[in-house]
Structure formats: structure tokens, C-alpha cells
Design brief:
The complex is a heterodimer of chains A (311) and B (431). With 311 residues, chain A is an all-alpha fold. A two-stranded antiparallel ribbon of chain A has the order 1-2. In chain A, helix 12 runs antiparallel to helix 13. The N and C termini of chain A lie far apart (58 Å). Chain B folds into 2 domains: 200 residues, D-Maltodextrin-Binding Protein, domain 2 (3-Layer(aba) Sandwich), CATH 3.40.190; 184 residues, 3-Layer(aba) Sandwich (D-Maltodextrin-Binding Protein, domain 2), CATH 3.40.190. Chain B is 48% helix and 12% strand. Chain B is built from 20 helices and 8 strands. In chain B, strands 1, 2, 3, 4, 5, 6, 7 and 8 form an 8-stranded mixed beta sheet that branches. In chain B, helix 2 crosses helix 16. The longest helix of chain B has 18 residues. The radius of gyration of chain B is 23 Å and the shape is globular. Chain B starts with 14 loop residues before the first helix and ends with a helix. The chains are: A mainly alpha (311), B alpha+beta (431). At the A-B interface, loops of A face helix 5, helix 6, helix 14 and helix 19 of B.
Chain lengths: 311, 431
């Protein structure tokens, strides 16, 4: 009994003990790598020589990163793909959520589940599937395009030759953006659907009594009410888009594709470390990317705050 | 088996003489083996090499009862990432690590691997038993031998005999020179519609290596001067451009679905690669093309290595285990029977010269129409020169491929393409 009472948690200690597992995991897997990468960013290191082989180089790695053509190229690629995949996600997800919310009763959960499925499916499985779909000679997308070419009138608008989706620089970014869009559309739709369910129905009823049609109801009630959720979802898209890694990495075989057209900044700094053995420059780049993500997130916050709160 | 070819493991015959420094430790290992606590030797490897190690277990257990082998296997790129991490932190270091040739040069730059040429191991005296270029590949600029070659990848030109014969192209026309290789492709394309090669990049990859002598650098010289504007790169780019302009390449990358389908459907007529590709073609890539392929030396008397596996001991391994690790490496790389078994089962071309003298090398290969191609590859292995490795080679490879893509796809002129590549590389040469 004495032993049990000795190990009994006092109310004062209970929160700390309960949060301890998270804190330990956070320290090991978040805080330590964060600080270690900051330390590395100021050092030159041949990793296979061990931890003692580090040499302090000051801001040399940051200078190198800022003058590196490929770092800027990767940033341009990242912004391109973040915009091309991110903007349509919201432009399609909002009307889609409105449609599902207002028009579907039976089978709604199945439809939402179907749209959400890509988000919870393994990225590797998705990338393998799309690699097969984008295949130049044997892919279903090119077969479909070839079929559409036989249509009267509009057939001439489709390419005569099979499109080398993952081999030609001009097609790589659109192909990757399409996959990212497809994957996260359902996730955003679920967010907006949840927000739609919180809008009081009497607002719409009052608007209808005042003679407002569906379009005006959407514009003056739905959209302003969704604004907090749009802010949240856009912020997630900005952060996720700038850290884009898995989809382009697997679709381009981990190399970024021809002319590095699909090489996002996250891929480049990974390759800098593990392919090109330059952990110092890779760490410096990761911090530069962090500053960019923080700045764009702050800008997003400001853009949504500028016109006043939704209420 | 000739006496000189037989593997002599330390502690078995002459450990005291050949491994003076390690004999006691090894004896310790044996006594450890006899003790209650079993000794487990960890080997980190990737596919095929992991099986080769596992298959050596019975022989190892007969020699070292009680010393078990634990194989930690990962996919090739994951394995090398894990080894980089293990060496950098000295945590979870295996006793023996397999390294693909591309990583040996990189890892050799650091100080994380044991010098097997050291008197304690004595590999410097045993180097003549291995294919010369493979030992040179594992030797760093300080003269240290950081790994022992397990298998090698002598380059060869595999070609579809039936397609070329139908097009009226013989092997001599295909291999006389690089220009005749391209000309043969034009005739082949006109006659059968088949592509000469999978990707024009393959042509560039081998031509930039043509004419290099042992110790020469590929992209950088010994003083880190950039070499990519030299005539060998200009010619490589010109030949690749000619192949693309004549539509001789299928524009597919190795190991893609299109690449394997090209072999299965007979739309790709040749492939320059390591000799091991013949085994992959026969076993799973295109088994239905049985008897239709032949092997030749690379065009214009070129010789090159495509892949290869090395075994190394991390410096951070406890001293008492290093002797056992070295004994295992010797079993895997200096035992003629083990080397032959790995070749027969996994197409792992032996790095051990004695293993290459087996009758197996003169036997006909049914997949290659009965051609005794292994003797051809053995000859190629003796002519290959080891190229000096630079720490920026991986990046240089990427830059050159990018500029080649611009030349082939966007019509960029060769001189500015190579000039742009040189500028990028010069910025990194001394990092």
C-alpha cells in the first residue's frame, strides 16, 4: 500500500506526466533535428567521416544557396506547382462541397468517401498508378487522347503523337500538379462541407424571402461564412504546396525529371544531402525554405484579415 | 581446385602469419563462438547481395560454428542512405557493409571505412587476385583500399541478332566505330522500324568514358578543374544528337515500363550495359526473346564498368569483431566456389580472377543463341580502366544529363550547353 501511494500521481504532476510521451517524441523527432539542421547550416561536413568531421564555415552555405541557379529553379518549380495544384483545389472544392451539401441526400457519405479516398491512399500507390496512366506508349491518358482525336470537329485539337508526360519538361509540372490536385481535392471538400453545415439555415430562408436566387445566396451568405475555413484551407495549401515532395519525387524517379522540371525545393535539398553529399548547403536551403513558407503564410494571414473578419 | 586458388581463411591455416594483428582478436572471436553468448555478425546489404550472403551461411557456419550472420536488407538507395547515416553517427553500424560502386568512391573520400590494405588485413598483398580495375575503384587518393570487390559489371553491347540480320547489319558494322554504330541504327530503323537504343543518353554515357586512362577523372581532373568542355564531351553530345535526329532512340529510361516493353516487343534492338543485364533479360525482362540476343564488346574498342558491389568494414566496428568481418569478406570475395555460386545464381560477375578461370566461362549461353559470352565479358573486365572519383561526380552527372536534354529536346547548341555545365560545375568543384 505504501508503495502504491508513493507512485500515486498528484494532481499537480498528472498533466506533466501525461504530456511527457509527446514531449519526448517532439524532442527526439522534431526539436533535435531542427536544431541539428540549424547547426549543420553553418558547417561543412563529410558525413561518412563521422560527427567529428564538421568544420564551421559561417554563412558560407547560405551564400552558396542564394547564388545557386538550381535552388532558384527549384523554387520557381515549387511555386508553379503549388499554384497550379492549389488554386484549382479550392475553386473546385467549394462549389463541389456546396453541391454535395445541398443536392445530395442519399449516398452523400459514399460520394464524400470517394472524393476523400485519394487523401488517405498511400502516395506510393498513387504515384505508381499515375506513372502507368501517364505512360507514353501504353498509358490510358494517351490512349484516351488518341481516341478523342477521332471525334469530329474538335478532334484536331488533340495531339497527334503520344504525349511524353514524364519525359518532356513542359509536361512534367502539369502532370504532377494534376496528381496533387486530384489527391487533395477531397480533403478540401470535406473541410468546406464541415463549414457549410455550421451555417444557420434561417439565413438562407430569410434571403429566399427577400428574393435572393441561388447565386446571390452563394455570394452573400455561403462565401462570407466560409471565409474562416477558406483561410485555414488556403494556409494548409500554402504550407503543403511549398513543401511538395512525395508526388514529384516518386513520379520523376527521385531525380526531378528532365531539365529538373519537376524538382521541388524539398526534393532538391534532399538530393543535395543524400545524392550530392552536401549536408551543409542542404540545411541552409531548408532554412531558407522555412523563411519563405513563414513569409507566405504571414501574407496569406494578412490577405484574409485585410477585409475584416467574416462576422 | 588448384591449391593457390583455395581460400585461406585466417585462423584456419596461417592466421598468425598473415593477420598478425588480428589473429588474437579472431581467436577471441572463435572463443566467443564457443562461449555461451553467441556472436552475431551483422551484414547490411541490398537485393541479390543479401541472398549471396545468406547462401554463404552453411560454409561460414562450418568454418565458424557459433558465429552467426544476420543480414539486414534494404532497397539499394535506402541501404546507401542508411549506411551514410550509420557512418555519420556511428550508430547501428553493421560489421560488414555492401556498397554499390557509385558509393564506394564517395565513401572512400571520408574516413569512415577501414583500410583493408593495412597490414592487419593484408588485402594489398591479395589485390592481384582481384580484377585490377575493381581494386583501383576501391582505392582512395591516399592509397587506402577501403573495400573488397564482390562482383563487377563489365560493359557489353547486347543486340538483337535477328533484327540486325534482317536489316543486313552485321556485328562488325555495329561495333567498328561510334559513327558506324549510328549508321547501323539508321539502316536498322529503315528496315524494321526498331530503335537502335533505349535512350541517346546511353550513347553519351559511354562515349565520355572512351579513351580515359586509369586514374583519369571523368568530369574533373586531380586539381578539380572541370573537363566537360573537352573533345570527348563534344563528341559524345554530337553522337547522341545524331542518334536523336535520326530517331534512333526510343526516348525511354532504363527500368521503366516502356524500357522493358521495348525489349519484349522487339522495338529496342541494342542495349549497352553490364553483363548482368543478359541474366535479367533471360529471367524476367524479356524471356520470350530467348535465343535472339547476342553480346559484343562495346563499339570502337571501348571498355567500361556498369555497376559492381564491394564489401567494406566500418571503422567504428569494435576491434574484436573486425577480424571476423574480414574473414567473412574473404569468404565472399576470395572463395572461388562462393564467387561462382553467386555468379550462377544471381549473375554476380566474379571479381575474383581465379573464379573467372572456371569452365563455366566457356560454356554456351542458350539465351544468347549458344554464344559463350562469359569469356567475352571476362576479356572486357581485364581491359577496363578505373576512373578517378571526384566528390562532385554525382552532381556533374546530373548537370551533364540536363544539358544533353536541352540539346536533344530544345535544340540548344552543344558549345553553350557544355559551357553552361562547366560554369555550374566550376562553382561546386571545390566545395
Amino acid at each position: 500500500m505504501r508503495l502504491r501511494s508513493r507512485f500515486r500521481l498528484t494532481p499537480a504532476w498528472t498533466p506533466y506526466v501525461l504530456i511527457l510521451p509527446f514531449l519526448l517524441l517532439f524532442l527526439v523527432f522534431n526539436l533535435f533535428p531542427l536544431l541539428f539542421s540549424l547547426f549543420l547550416a553553418f558547417h561543412s561536413w563529410e558525413p561518412t567521416s563521422g560527427l567529428t568531421a564538421m568544420q564551421f564555415v559561417g554563412f558560407d552555405n547560405f551564400g552558396f544557396a542564394l547564388g545557386d541557379e538550381w535552388f532558384w529553379k527549384s523554387l520557381r518549380n515549387t511555386l508553379w506547382m503549388a499554384l497550379a495544384s492549389g488554386v484549382p483545389q479550392h475553386l473546385v472544392a467549394i462549389p463541389l462541397a456546396c453541391f454535395v451539401h445541398s443536392a445530395l441526400r442519399r449516398g452523400r457519405d459514399w460520394v464524400v468517401g470517394a472524393f476523400f479516398l485519394p487523401y488517405i491512399t498511400s502516395t506510393v500507390a498513387i504515384a505508381i498508378l499515375f506513372s502507368a496512366l501517364f505512360s507514353t506508349d501504353y498509358g490510358l491518358i494517351n490512349l484516351g487522347l488518341q481516341g478523342l482525336r477521332h471525334l469530329p470537329l474538335i478532334g484536331a485539337a488533340f495531339p497527334a503523337e503520344p504525349v511524353d508526360w514524364m519525359g518532356r519538361p513542359e509536361y512534367i509540372k502539369p502532370a504532377i500538379s494534376l496528381v496533387v490536385f486530384w489527391r487533395y481535392l477531397g480533403f478540401n471538400m470535406v473541410l468546406y462541407l464541415a463549414a457549410l453545415q455550421t451555417i444557420p439555415g434561417d439565413l438562407y430562408e430569410a434571403a429566399r424571402l427577400d428574393g435572393a436566387g441561388p447565386l446571390r445566396q452563394f455570394w452573400f451568405i455561403t462565401l462570407p461564412s466560409l471565409k474562416p475555413m477558406i483561410f485555414f484551407a488556403v494556409t494548409l495549401s500554402v504550407i503543403g504546396g511549398l513543401q511538395l515532395f512525395e508526388e514529384p519525387f516518386i513520379l520523376t524517379g527521385g531525380r526531378g525529371g528532365s531539365d529538373q522540371a519537376g524538382m521541388s525545393t524539398a526534393i532538391y535539398l534532399y538530393r543535395m544531402a543524400f545524392d550530392f553529399n552536401d549536408f551543409g548547403a542542404a540545411s541552409a536551403m531548408s532554412w531558407l525554405l522555412f523563411f519563405l513558407v513563414a513569409a507566405l503564410t504571414a501574407l496569406t494571414n494578412r490577405a484574409f484579415r485585410a477585409r475584416g473578419p467574416a462576422s | 581446385m588448384p591449391e593457390r586458388d583455395r581460400l585461406e581463411l585466417p585462423g584456419r591455416r596461417d592466421a598468425g602469419r598473415r593477420l598478425a594483428g588480428l589473429a588474437l582478436a579472431l581467436a577471441g572471436g572463435r572463443s566467443l563462438a564457443a562461449a555461451a553468448q553467441p556472436v552475431v555478425l551483422t551484414v547490411a546489404a541490398y537485393p541479390a547481395v543479401d541472398d549471396i550472403v545468406r547462401e554463404a551461411r552453411p560454409r561460414w557456419n562450418a568454418l565458424y560454428p557459433g558465429v552467426d550472420i544476420k543480414v539486414v536488407s534494404r532497397q539499394t538507395s535506402d541501404h546507401h542512405t542508411a549506411m551514410t547515416t550509420a557512418l555519420s553517427t556511428s550508430f547501428y553500424l553493421p560489421d560488414v557493409m555492401a556498397l554499390e560502386v557509385g558509393y564506394v568512391g564517395r565513401f572512400a573520400q571520408g574516413g569512415g571505412l577501414e583500410d583493408l590494405g593495412d597490414a592487419a588485413y593484408g588485402m594489398r598483398h591479395e589485390a592481384p587476385q582481384y580484377v585490377p580495375y575493381a581494386v583501383a575503384q576501391a582505392t582512395n587518393r591516399h592509397g587506402q583500399i577501403v573495400a573488397a570487390p564482390s562482383d563487377i559489371g563489365p560493359g557489353t553491347l547486347l543486340y538483337r541478332h535477328d533484327l540486325l540480320t534482317a536489316a543486313g547489319v552485321d556485328e562488325a558494322a555495329l561495333t567498328r566505330s561510334w559513327d558506324s554504330f549510328v549508321a547501323a541504327g539508321v539502316r536498322l530503323k529503315a528496315a524494321s522500324g526498331a530503335f537502335l537504343l533505349a535512350n541517346a543518353r546511353d550513347l553519351k554515357d559511354i562515349v565520355i568514358r572512351t579513351g580515359l586512362r586509369a586514374g583519369d577523372g571523368l568530369y574533373f581532373d586531380a586539381d578539380s578543374n572541370v573537363l566537360v568542355e573537352s573533345p570527348r564531351f563534344v563528341r559524345a553530345f554530337e553522337l547522341a544528337r545524331a542518334a536523336r535526329q535520326h530517331k534512333l532512340d526510343a526516348r525511354v529510361t532504363a527500368w521503366s515500363n516502356e524500357w522493358s516493353e521495348g525489349f519484349r516487343r522487339g522495338t529496342i534492338a541494342t542495349q549497352m550495359s553490364g553483363a548482368w543485364l543478359a541474366g535479367h533479360l533471360a529471367n524476367w525482362l524479356a524471356p520470350a526473346t530467348h535465343g535472339l540476343w547476342r553480346a559484343a564488346q562495346l563499339p570502337e574498342g571501348s571498355f567500361a564498368a556498369y555497376g559492381g558491389t564491394f564489401l567494406a568494414i566500418p571503422r567504428g566496428v569494435p576491434a574484436e569483431r573486425k577480424a571476423l568481418a574480414w574473414a567473412l569478406i574473404r569468404l565472399l570475395t576470395l572463395d572461388r566456389e562462393r564467387q561462382l555460386a553467386a555468379f550462377k545464381a544471381h549473375d554476380a560477375f566474379p571479381g575474383l580472377l581465379a573464379a573467372q578461370q572456371d569452365d563455366f566461362f566457356t560454356q554456351p549461353l542458350p539465351f544468347l543463341g549458344g554464344q559463350p559470352a562469359r569469356a567475352l565479358w571476362r576479356d572486357a573486365a581485364l581491359h577496363i580502366s578505373a576512373i578517378a572519383v571526384h566528390k562532385q561526380d554525382a552532381f556533374a552527372d546530373e548537370v551533364i544529363n540536363t544539358e544533353l536534354d536541352k540539346v536533344l529536346d530544345q535544340g540548344k547548341a552543344i558549345a553553350p550547353a557544355l559551357s553552361d555545365a562547366a560554369r555550374l560545375l566550376a562553382r561546386r568543384a571545390h566545395r
